[in-house]
Design goal:
Number of helices of chain A: 15
Number of strands of chain B: 4
Low-confidence stretches of chain B: none
Helix content of chain A: 40-55%
Number of helices of chain B: 11
Largest sheet of chain A: 4 strands, mixed
Distance between the termini of chain B: 51 Å
CATH superfamily of the largest domain in chain A: Response regulator
Strand order of the largest sheet of chain A: 2-3-1-4
Strand content of chain A: 15-25%
Distance between the termini of chain A: 69 Å
Oligomer: heterodimer
Order of helices and strands of chain B: EEHHHHEEHHHHHHH
CATH class of the largest domain in chain A: Alpha Beta
Strand order of the largest sheet of chain B: 1-2
Order of helices and strands of chain A: HEHEEHEHEEHEHEHEHHEHHEHHHEEEEH
Largest interface: A-B, 42 and 41 residues
Mean pLDDT of chain A: 90
Radius of gyration of chain A: 24 Å
Largest sheet of chain B: 2 strands, antiparallel
Radius of gyration of chain B: 19 Å
Structural class of chain A: alpha/beta
Number of domains of chain B: 2
Shape of chain A: globular
Mean pLDDT of chain B: 88
Low-confidence stretches of chain A: 8-30
Helix content of chain B: over 70%
Amino acid sequence: MNDRISRTLSSVVLGSALGLAALSAPASQASLSDDRVRLGVLADMSGPYGDLCGKHCVEAVNMAVEDFGGQVLGQPIDVISADDQNKPDLGSAKAREWIESQGVDAINGLVASSVVGAVAQVANSAEKPILISGAGSNTFTTKTCSPFNAHWTYDVVALARGTVSPLVKSGKKKWFFITADYAFGHALENVATGIIESNGGTVVGSAKAPLGTTDYSSFVLQAISSGADAVALANAGKDFVNSLKGASEFGLSQQATMVGLLVFASDTRSIDADIIGNMRLTTGFYWDRDEATRVWSKRFMERTDGAVPTMAHAGAYSSTLHYLKAVAATGTDDGATVMKHMKANAPDDMFARHATLRADGRMAYDMYQVRVKTAAERSNRNDLYEIENVIPGDQAYAAMIPECDFK
Amino acid sequence: MTTILGINVFALLGQLLVGLINGSFYALLALGLAIIFGLLRIINFAQGALYMLGAFLAWLGLQQLGLNYWLALVLVPLAVGAIGILMERTLIRPIAGQDHLYSLLLTFGVALILQGAFNHWFGSSGQSYPIPDALKGGNNLGFMYLPTYRGWIILVSLVVCLATWWTIEKTRLGAYLRAGTENPQLLQGFGVNVPVMISLTFGFGVGLAGLAGVLAAPVYSVSADMGANLLIVVFAIVVIGGMGSIGGAILTGLAMGVIEGLTKYFYPQASSTVIFMVMVLVLLFKPAGLFGKEA
């Protein structure tokens, strides 16, 4: 009999305890839309841009979540990811699925500008923040700006300004472009052309190479016969690697200064130091900048089998951290509230220095002009750059246009 | 500078030569496909992946074993050929005699697996392979600077292509091979071991892709998808030349290299499609291909 009472009693106690827990749970997460904060990382995981962001961007986001303590407002933070295969339709379908049925609160990664454009439409209308860590087009803070876009790592303006203007000023006046024949390449060429002309230089020619061209010798010969003293490569990833190799092989590099407009550390590492050594370029991150970046990068490399962290990886980490801080501070995962807080408070971590997330969603911070080290200067295979100059964010990025002033 | 009709002749000569370089490359790859299709009636979609494998084996050999370029040039095609033979024995033979589509789909699957695996292991940004010291530098031809290594590519490709064509079309061994495709039972009756011959032929065709991979490693980024884009172009070349015509594949390879080179000069935007436009025209007016026999 006693036994039975005690059993009943214990079940009552246990039951009410559970009930209380169930009742108290909503109280502590009153302002989260569900019982967790979920981040989605969407990127090209297996294609040509896989190394510059890809699965290691997922790792970088995970690192930010861990550094934040793994939970926010007493609820867990989890990270899911998908491969967009650089296809806008796939990317927007995934974003819709994540937002509508999987409770994703913010999307990170985002590499190919075409995919980002499609994802932004979905996320903007659902009022979910997108943290663009890999894409370069500047439309996300101009033509298609939205209160929910946070464009983090770089854009075409910052790259062209940082790399091109010092060269024109130092006397490189005749320019030739080898441009990837799609929106990103054209945008990069246009912005760079504007900078060249406003500094008194001229563009003597341009060859539009189809995306994924393997053999650049024809374009290199055109650049040689143009007599240009600087040749800009308005392309990215493997196109950049193959075009630069061709330039070196056919003697263009000896005749003109080669200028890489978008170069990730993963690209630099995959080219012979003899070919890329001494090239000047602009980047938002270099792992060996100081103690803070070295500590972070060492952790990153341990988790990624020695991959060299690119600015996209570091940007994905930084943007995630800033987002989570805003969720914690505002006590909500409501997109508009969180974005407001992110803009009102400066990001500050090993990546974002002297940073501000402007009202138009542009994260402006210190960019670096670097010189690629030659083979003789390198002490190991990740010893890539020497930082020559720091460009403050307000000089690196274009000024905000009034239509995009989302306070 | 000399110009005719507003065209810089020197620049044009340069483009023609560059076209010829690429064309000799196409010829080498197309040759492998043409042999495998012409003699064995197998549509080998893995040829591009095996080309990639050749480049990676050369790179791995250099990184891991210190195997130099010259050894790689000999050993890698043999290794890729051996992998080809293994593939033929274990995967392709069981579906021999079925519709061509089966071998196409099977080899396509193999290509995707190889490509995916290398992407997973080595990442997407590519590896670099140095040009061997003996082939560094170049010569100024007056109208352009010709890197020695590119000259080497033309030389190797042409020698290999001609030797292969001669062997298949003009020797007794070639006659056996051709007889094997026409009537395997009869040839077997003469005491020739046809299954071994088929394996070796497949291995040779695939080995050519491996050789092209080694040749390509020093000039292009060595990466998992290096064969994927090229393969489609090379297939178009084989179709233009006439499926199975060995001489046709070689000549078309060279011609398409030149046409592509000229397009890159006059209207670069179309350079990735011009070969397919030629293919469409050829299929419309001469469905068996330029050098193919009408069925």
